[in-house]
Amino acid sequence: MSKISLTPNASGTGTLTIAAPNTSTDRTLTLPDETGTIISSTSSQVAGPAFRAYGSTLTSVPNNTWTKIIFNTKDFDTNNCFDTSNYRFTPNVAGYYQFNCRVGMGATGTGIAAIKIYKNGSQHIIGDEPLNIATYGAYPSVHGLGWANGTTDYFEVYVYQNSGSTQNCGSAQSGFNFDGFLARIS
Amino acid sequence: MSLYEKIIALYPELTDYDFYTVITLQNDSDGNGDYIAKWEHPTLARPTEEQLA
What we know:
Chain A is an all-beta fold. Chain A has strands spanning 50-54, 59-61, 66-68, 73-77, 82-83, 88-89, 95-102, 104-105, 112-119, 122-126, 131-132, 141-148, 155-161, 167-170, 178-185. Chain A has a domain at 57-185: Jelly Rolls. A five-stranded antiparallel sheet of chain A has the order 4-1-15-7-12, with no helix packed on it. In chain A, strand 9 (112-119) and strand 10 (122-126) form a beta hairpin. The two termini of chain A are 35 Å apart. In chain B, strands 1-2 form a two-stranded antiparallel ribbon. Helix content of chain B is 34%, strand content 21%. Classes of the chains: A mainly beta, B alpha+beta. The A-B interface holds A 59, 61-70, 86-87, 111-112, 114, 130, 158, 160, 162, 166 and B 2-4, 16, 19-20, 24-30, 34, 37. Strand 3 (66-68) of chain A pairs parallel with strand 1 of chain B, so a sheet runs across the interface.
């Protein structure tokens, strides 16, 4: 017969209480046969960062110039990791993050558009590239996983176009936004 | 005149493809304007600040 051992912590002063729910049914919680830590609803594995941001102003994108998109408004930001002053997501939990971004560009006619997610100032996840600019403009998007150390690593979105002149890039709330969430801790 | 236009005035032989591959102009939307983030053109030298002034 295997055993159950409860080990007090000599350094702590609090009392750990295991509370039963209000139930009249017998329940059994079965622990996995492996070494690890039980997580709670507030653990970072469960309550990791998630955000969605958009731009309430247009971003002016010069011809042939990779330009950071202005995401200065947030729909939500669970861990307060998205900075609307520099349009950066700096997650505070180390792990793998899923990112999605789609923007609208007013450029029409010829040329291409492209989009990338930068990590720490360098390209990291490449999106639609090159995407031909059509009669109704271009709507480049990028999706992918990135790893963050949970302290200093940050992510931003840059777009590019070569229509021949400066173009406004919209990231209005209706479908054009930058979002991400913790997919797996390190 | 934008940074791109200044560079094209110096090197009219540059193409859109060059700016998409070996040359990266960048703007961080921080009010500091456009700058050359990468210049790896095989034959043309990176323009100096004086040339771009």
